[in-house]
Design brief:
Elements lengths: L14 H41 L3 H29 L1 H21 L3 H29 L2 H32 L8 H4 L1 H15 L13 H20 L7 H28 L12 H31 L4 H7 L1 H22 L1 H25 L5 H19 L2 H5 L8 H26 L6 H5 L3 H27 L7 H4 L4 H15 L1
Helix pairs in contact: 1-2, 1-4, 1-5, 1-7, 1-10, 1-11, 2-3, 2-4, 2-8, 2-16, 3-4, 3-7, 5-11, 5-12, 5-20, 8-9, 8-16, 10-16, 10-18, 11-14, 12-13, 12-14, 13-14, 13-18, 16-20
């Protein structure tokens, strides 16, 4: 790798000690960036009702506040990673962190719902520049024998982000600092981002791929255009009365995706630098794994948004009460994720992921029953059991999924496969957020809400949406049977550390 200029070591310290300190400080910077991204996803959901009341956001706008971020993030991940390979990972990382910080400020000062959505899209796009560089920088900075320790730290950051995001969002919203309502959830990124830029510029060394591929701008345009043609009418359709152009747009997206596949094949023959390596889909286990990623992302996208709406708008809970309610879920995810990677998957392989899908389904069904049984009088402690069961299931899936999916992929394509897996899970999340219009808001009896029975109406819509989540998890379980029986680590012990490395992006995305 190419390194930036460094200063002479301080008196009394060896150059080796200075280099060692620099790389650990560089690690602190990139881990902080990952933490910012993780928290920013979970922190926003808690503040949704406050945003709705303060700036008059419609339900479709609330969807786009999360959907816009997820779509821009997913569409830009592969491109962001390639830009780092070509122009330098440090340079692109700092550009992404600077853009993310600026976009956070724009979110925090937005006074119009549409401006907030635009700022969130910018935030997602800049995160797509920042996040793919994190593991690449770690790979270039730390020797192989130290990466296991480093990725263990990343696992802790994932757990911390999952737990602290909702709580931090709830506290910042509840405290109403300086009368700013929900805005501090975004403005808190400013000091963190500025400090990260200063330290990153000083301590992160530059690195590039030895043989960087070219950018596939046409592929990016076709993929993004197809997604917008599918997701925009899906999200806005209910509010606009399901117009004919919406159905035509969704049907046309299939044509655009077909054109994307054709162009990627042409790009492969032309210069060998497509946006997506289509040959990977010839591996049966990888194709099934991509299906698992998409379906799992859809389930998560639907659940987290309707869960927030149910607790805060339906049941009328405060942001703090809703945030604290999610603690059992977050802790269960963190505990199960650690056990699955270190103990269970090397021994039991895909059975661990299947057990995770079954556990999540069981938790969803239990949640449906409790919502029906206790009605609007349900308490947070009564939600703890289904949330814990769901969290344990999610933890068994998210941590080892990437490693298991790429077990059958040729070694030379493992990097491309890992990036594609991460991207498709984010795309699934974006689709899930779009489907909320169909599976939740279509089932919401607005007449009941108008008559003052919002709790009953939102609870019924929540149960309807949760049945969809259970059905999608059933698809996840079915697709898992086509995945390898053993993970890469379980099949070949010598590749265990590499498998952990590949699991890193998935952990960050899934949290």
């Amino acid at each position: 790798m190419t390194s930036t200029a460094t200063t002479d070591p301080p008196a009394g310290k060896s150059p080796g000690a200075t280099a060692d300190r620099r790389r650990w400080l560089a690690l602190a910077v990139v881990m902080t960036a990952s933490f910012m991204d993780l928290v920013d996803v979970t922190i926003v959901n808690i503040a949704m009702p406050s945003i709705q009341k303060d700036i008059g956001a419609s339900f479709s706008i609330l969807q786009w506040i999360t959907e816009g971020y997820a779509l821009a993030f997913a569409a830009g991940l592969i491109t962001g990673g390639r830009l780092g390979d070509i122009y330098g990972r440090r340079k692109v990382f700092l550009l992404g962190m600077g853009g993310f910080t600026l976009a956070s400020m724009l979110c925090g000062v937005a006074g119009d719902p549409h401006l907030l959505v635009a700022a969130r899209v910018l935030q997602g796009a800049t995160a797509a520049l920042m996040v793919p560089q994190v593991l690449a920088i770690v790979h270039a900075t730390f020797p192989a024998h130290e990466r296991g320790k480093v990725f263990g730290m990343f696992g802790a950051i994932v757990g911390l982000g999952a737990v602290s995001g909702p709580i931090l969002g709830a506290l910042l919203t509840q405290w109403n600092l300086f009368g700013l309502e929900w805005r501090p959830i975004f403005l808190v990124n400013l000091p963190v981002g500025i400090a990260g830029l200063i330290m990153g510029r000083r301590y992160i060394s530059e690195s590039r791929a030895p043989q960087a591929l070219k950018l596939d701008l046409v592929g990016v345009a076709l993929a993004t255009g197809g997604l917008l043609m599918l997701l925009y009418p899906l999200t806005q359709g209910r509010e606009l009365g399901w117009p004919l152009w919406g159905f035509l747009s969704m049907a046309g997206s299939a044509v655009v995706f077909a054109a994307f596949v054709a162009y990627e094949r042409h790009k492969t023959r032309k210069d060998g630098s497509p946006l997506v390596e289509l040959s990977l889909f010839k591996v049966k286990s990888f194709a099934a794994g991509i299906g698992v990623e998409v379906a799992f992302g859809v389930a998560c996208g639907v659940f987290f948004l309707i869960w927030t709406l149910y607790m805060q708008i339906g049941l009328g809970w405060s942001a703090l009460r809703a945030g604290l309610t999610g603690i059992p879920f977050s802790i269960a995810v963190s505990v199960a994720a650690g056990l699955s990677v270190q103990k269970l998957v090397p021994r039991f392989g895909r059975k661990v992921l299947q057990a995770g899908a079954l556990s999540m389904m069981a938790g969803v069904l239990l949640y449906i029953w409790e919502s029906e049984h206790f009605g609007t009088a349900i308490h947070p402690w009564q939600m703890a059991l289904p949330l814990t069961v769901m969290g344990l299931g999610m933890g068994l899936i998210v941590a080892p999924l990437t490693e298991t999916v790429i077990a059958g992929v040729p070694r030379e394509h493992s990097g491309s496969a890992s990036g594609l897996i991460n991207t498709t899970q984010q795309l699934g999340n974006a689709v899930g957020l779009g489907l909320v219009s169909v599976v939740f808001f279509n089932a919401l009896d607005e007449g009941e809400v108008a008559r003052g029975h919002a709790g009953e109406a939102f609870a019924a819509a929540f149960r309807h949406g949760m049945w969809w989540v259970a059905a999608v998890l059933g698809v996840v379980l079915a697709l898992m049977f086509a995945m390898p029986r053993k993970s890469a680590a379980g099949a070949e012990a010598g590749e265990g550390a590499e498998g952990v490395e590949d699991a890193g992006p998935e952990l960050a995305a899934a949290a």
